[in-house]
Amino acid sequence: MRCVILDDYQDVAKRYAAWDSLDGLEVTSLTEHLGPDALVRALDGAEIVVAMRERTPFSAVLLERLPALKLLVTTGMRNASIDLAAAARLGITVCGTPSSPHPPVELTWALIHALTRHIVLEATGHGWQRTVGGDLHGRTLGLLGLGKIGTRVAAVGQAFGMDVIAWSPHLTTERAEPLGVRAVEKHTLFETSDIVSLHLVLAETTRHIVGDGELARMKPTAHLVNTSRAGLVNTKALVAHLGSGTIAGAGLDVFDVEPLPSDDVLRHLPNVVATPHLGYVTEGNYRRFYGGAVEDIAAWLAGDPIRTLLPKDRDA
Hints:
With 316 residues, this protein is an alpha/beta fold. The protein contains eleven helices and twelve strands.
């Protein structure tokens, strides 16, 4: 039986789990991102596929081109790029793995510091002390989303002495107040925040929830940070506001097309700090991801799948 691990960019998947515990399973790791036709050829005859987050979308059309596929494991317990309904119809079991909210929280703050203290420019340029950094203490942090990740980002902001406010479609004062966070209207968040950070699930109801109108409300000294999903932001509108200077800058870890093309404008705007979707890429998380994948495969081979994802879980 054949198992293929996809998008193992750093060629480390086999290092972080006991794949040899799966007797009789041939495990192959692909380090390059493949388009649909090349992917179908690479997965020919593979009964098991391990996908890294949403790097490779599995649409109904693609799944139908993989007749041998019986088990699809995604790292994490949510993957909006897998058509779960099509997988169920085709008899493909889809399973998730454990993950940690801490790495994306840490990267969020890395981007905030990089933006406000001009770290990339100061670290890579010539000269000495060319810029004056911005302060966090006493400033306002606005969070779109106050779930597992958002609450942890809030706690760090409070430790820096920031006033933390939040909005999401279903956030209540009763939920926010015990966390020391003020629930506000969406327009208030964009008008008053010095840092706006996104921590929402991408669904049809939240797609482009940050558009031209929201960006136009931001202070010209404010920064936008997105370590969640690119689809939450209208990228065309964001590029326009970054280019015109109506907002100070953006820290981005997620993009509409990944890997981000070398000629994409977001790679070249001077007020953008862009990282290649590193939010979940840490040693601890990779051990959870790939160790969980091995557990999923072993359970499936034993006829008792665990952590199965069903169509209703897609936008949970």
